[in-house]
UniProtKB/TrEMBL annotation:
GO molecular function: heme binding; indoleamine 2,3-dioxygenase activity; metal ion binding
Keyword 4Fe-4S carried by entry: no
Residues that hold heme b according to the record: H353
Region feature Disordered, mapped onto this chain: 373-393
GO biological process: 'de novo' NAD+ biosynthetic process from L-tryptophan; L-tryptophan catabolic process to kynurenine
Spans through the membrane: none
InterPro entries reported in the protein's UniProt record: Indolamine_dOase, Trp/Indoleamine_2_3_dOase-like
Originating organism: Laccaria bicolor (strain S238N-H82 / ATCC MYA-4686) (Bicoloured deceiver)
Keyword Metal-binding: yes
Protein name, UniProt field: Predicted protein
Amino acid sequence: MSPYENELHAFDVDERAGFMPPSPPLTRLPQLWELWETILDATIHAKLQLGGKEAEASEAWRVRVRQLPVIPICELDSPMLLRRAHLVLTYILHFYIHTLPLTSPICIPKPISLPLVRISQKLDIPPLLTFSDTVLYNWVICTSEDFPTPLNVRSQTLFTGLRDEEEFYLCSARIELRGVEALQLVRATMDETSVNDSIAVRHVTQYLSTLSSVIDELHALMNDVRNGCDPDTYYNQVRPWFCGEDSDANKRKWVYEGLAEEGLLVPKELSGPSAGQSSLIHALDSFLGVNHGNPSFMQRMQSYMPRKHRLFLDHLMKSPRPLREFVVGARDGELEGAYNRAVGALKKFRDAHMIIAHLYILGPARRAASLRNSKGLQGEGKGREPVKGTGGTDLVTFLKDTRTRTIEAVIP
């Protein structure tokens, strides 16, 4: 294994798969935790509905959850087992919460709350669904190949079974996998900036030109979500399953039963899965010198990432010769132009993200609000608070701010 591979391995980053594992994630827990897998299978098979619809069927399933034993987790002794357990329990958690009537209090029973909080403490991530659950560790290979590529992965666990939901997850997975080349360019550039001579300037210029092209491809992959995911289907049937406590329309608190008596801390970070939790995008920001402020939503989203991925981002931030500083100090027009084009490509990526947000969230939110208003109802959208992302932010303000911060990195 090369020194570069050793360094990546320490951060649980793969040279060929990036922040995704190089082999398919575990698809089922061992027999000791089969009850969790069985209860998740049951709800997926039953096609339970959001917001208290089909109340009798959903309550019957929730009774089964409440009657589960509290299964010990001491033998979940590997990252692979812990990740699978977190995925299974958080999908059960979100099914449990989002099948409740919209005004019912949210009280998560001990058979879920206790093992989930303990597992989350071991993984050092919050006890609810995250980007890593829906994207990084939620796939299988659909060909005879043994390595993931943007063309051969399929999602494993879905709330709805709809192609729209799967394409939403796969859009992010494809970006992660195509982004591996960007990570390679980041590493190569960091090696050159430590040399800091005229040859290094030429090499970095070339790497940044290539990086611009890679980011353009990530932009195209994000736009491809339109090919398989319908905006209104996503907004009305898929997105509500992701919501965390801080994007609940009725501001209900999530109560995890039994924590105090077991000496467990009450979780404070309860935002749903968000593209803001992608370590790849954070890595590009750090590398290109995009400063989102301190504290910021982007900084807070790092607490939802796998722990070793956060350490990788810290490693980038602590580079002894940051890229932007290197470019400014070199006083080389070609290098500066290549750097600004890379930042510009990232800005265009964020422009595309804003368009997708308008298409998949803001537009459907307005249409849903108009329909509710015509019926004398209330909800997210017009006449209420600003539309929130699944990460709990004012979506429009957040997207505009990240784009502005990206533009500010350009060297005048």
